[in-house]
Amino acid sequence: MVLCHNQSSRPRLELVLITKPFTIAKSGVSHGQRILGLAIWLWMEMVTSLIHFQTDIISMFFKLPFRIFNAIQTQSMMEMRLHDMQLRHDNLLCENKKLRDELQVAIDDVRDSEMVITEVEDDYENSLSRIRKMETEVHALKSENLRLLQQRRQIETMTTTNKKDGTLDGIWSRAIVQSMFSTGMSVLVGAIIWGSEDPCMPLVMALFIVVGMSLTSVVQFFSVVKNKPGSDAYALLSLNWFILGALTSPTLARVFQLPAVRLSNRLFGAV
């Protein structure tokens, strides 16, 4: 069997030895084609790149003035914008400074206002305390005034009572004196009139005057007496009227007789 295997492997080895150069040549040809294609592609790329580079250079050469003009214009615009921004920055700095000054002034005003408010609150508290003290003083003064007013009213009442009592006493004594005097004068004048045959006009007139004065004093005393019983005044008034009526009743006819006779004589004498 070993011999059979060796006999079959010999033709294969010979075949490999015969075909191997062709295989190597084929692989070399294929690698050469690849290298040639790569070289051609690289050359074409280089030519294309050179053409594009030249066209770009030419286009850049033609576009360069426009780009320079645009760059100059853009630079001028940027400078203008930068100048504007610088001005705005300066203005903002000035406004910021002004705002800081105003803020500081406002802070100072707020502090001053707080101080003023604190002083006003202190003054308000002091005023409230003063008002409370004054209210207590006013209440005390009111109570004192009421007490003094009550005392004054009591004193005035006592004084008025004393004055009224003194006035009543004076009027009462004067009424009694005048009533007693008129009683005596009435008795005296009545005795004279009863003893004489003809009436005496001066005595009758004096009697009327005295009794009238007595009646005046009694009426004055009666008008003064208000809240007290007027029995004394009634008694004196009744006494005076009794004296006047009792003592002058017999003389009235004689007193009025003379004027009536004279008047009738004149009337009938003239006829």
Automatic annotation (TrEMBL):
Coiled coil ranges: 82-151
Keywords: Coiled coil, Membrane, Transmembrane, Transmembrane helix
Superkingdom classification of source: Eukaryota
Transmembrane regions listed in the UniProt entry: 171-195, 201-222, 234-256
Name assigned to this protein: Uncharacterized protein
Species assigned in the record: Zostera marina
